[in-house]
């Protein structure tokens, strides 16, 4: 006789994990949430007050191999925040306000303590973004994942009034690129970063460039949310385009917003590159072109604004506690 637990799936551990996370999840509930976690489906009632032409905006993403860093450092309370903030940023740059978030956690061996830490990160970021954590899935699959392996995927749904959609259609030559700083690598490029750094260092090692911060702490810096500064720009109708700098770096992500007749010209000397990127490039002898197409290099969000609106946009961003940097302009491909 072979039991499910002997085959590698511990149902009791799953029940314990759900019991641990339930109070944290409930703390994220907003007025639109109509059902507790555990139902077959999540119910959310839309409040469309002030929205004449509601458009739902959704995004799904993961945190890549940053989970390998978390496992190596045995610190699991930050990657959940990374995932929520990444997904929220992706719809916020479209002009949308996040409504609710769902997660998927896949693992080889379900550890209730680890699951609790991961979901704590989800809950922390959801509360900070005023976004409800309405449901998720914890899957224990020993035939797919190794004992200490896990993966995270998240989906966010938001809403925007159709006239306020930001998609770059109005971007034109002469517009200005204002960059906002990242908090670190965020959630892209970790395969390259791990290959370079863990070939020579471990998570608890320190290097002169990073000061007292360990390699692990630098790599696990939380992917920040840009929701507040984005909404401030959208409210003032100053953003012609908004770019969340993820996989592909500045070149790849600017192309997603800038119209075909235009190109974005970036001055990579306009800001000081955080030392972690210099460390990766030096230790791995990584070509500059690879660095630019892999990492955000210290700029996590770009707002494309009219030249005549640049000063107003700076004031709006500074009022949100930001330090915008003029990193380039939009030019004609001709």
**Helical fraction:** 25-40%
Instruction: State the total count of DSSP E strands.
Output: 9
Strand content: 15-25%
Average pLDDT figure: 94
What this model shows, in words?
It is a single chain. The chain is α+β, with helices and mostly antiparallel strands and 334 residues long. 33% of the residues lie in helices and 21% in strands. The strands form 2 sheets. It has a 5-stranded antiparallel β-sheet. Helix 1 runs parallel beside helix 4 (112-128). The protein is globular and about 75 Å long. The model has no long low-confidence stretch (mean pLDDT 94).
How would you concisely characterize the structure shown here?
The chain has eleven helices and nine strands.
């Amino acid at each position: 006789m072979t039991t499910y637990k002997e085959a590698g799936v511990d149902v009791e551990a799953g029940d314990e994990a759900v019991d641990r996370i339930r109070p944290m999840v409930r703390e994220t509930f907003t007025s639109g949430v109509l059902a507790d976690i555990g139902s077959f489906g999540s119910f959310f009632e839309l409040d469309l007050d002030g929205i004449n032409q509601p458009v739902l905006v959704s995004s799904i993403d993961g945190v890549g191999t940053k989970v390998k860093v978390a496992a190596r450092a045995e610190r699991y309370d930050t990657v959940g925040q990374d995932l929520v903030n990444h997904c929220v940023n992706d719809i916020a740059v479209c002009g949308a306000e996040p409504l609710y978030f769902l997660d998927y956690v896949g693992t080889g061996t379900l550890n209730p303590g680890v699951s609790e830490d991961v979901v704590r990160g989800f809950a922390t970021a959801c509360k900070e973004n005023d976004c409800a954590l309405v449901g998720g899935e914890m899957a224990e699959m020993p035939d797919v994942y190794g004992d200490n392996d896990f993966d995270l995927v998240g989906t966010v749904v938001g809403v925007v009034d159709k006239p306020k959609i930001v998609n770059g259609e109005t971007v034109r030559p002469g517009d200005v690129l204002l960059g906002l700083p990242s908090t670190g690598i965020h959630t892209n490029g970790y395969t390259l970063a791990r290959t370079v750094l863990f070939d020579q260092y471990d998570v608890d090692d320190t290097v002169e460039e990073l000061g007292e911060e360990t390699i692990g702490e630098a790599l696990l810096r939380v992917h920040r949310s840009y929701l507040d500064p984005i909404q401030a720009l959208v409210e003032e109708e100053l953003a012609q385009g908004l770019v969340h700098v993820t996989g592909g770096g500045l070149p790849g992500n600017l192309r997603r917003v800038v119209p075909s007749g235009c190109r974005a010209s970036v001055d990579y000397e306009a800001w000081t590159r955080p030392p972690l990127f210099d460390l990766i490039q030096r230790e791995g002898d990584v070509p500059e072109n690879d660095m630019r197409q892999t990492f955000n290099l210290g700029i996590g969000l770009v707002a494309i604004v009219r030249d005549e609106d640049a000063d107003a946009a700076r004031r709006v961003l500074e009022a949100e506690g930001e330090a915008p940097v003029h990193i380039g302009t939009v030019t004609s491909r001709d």
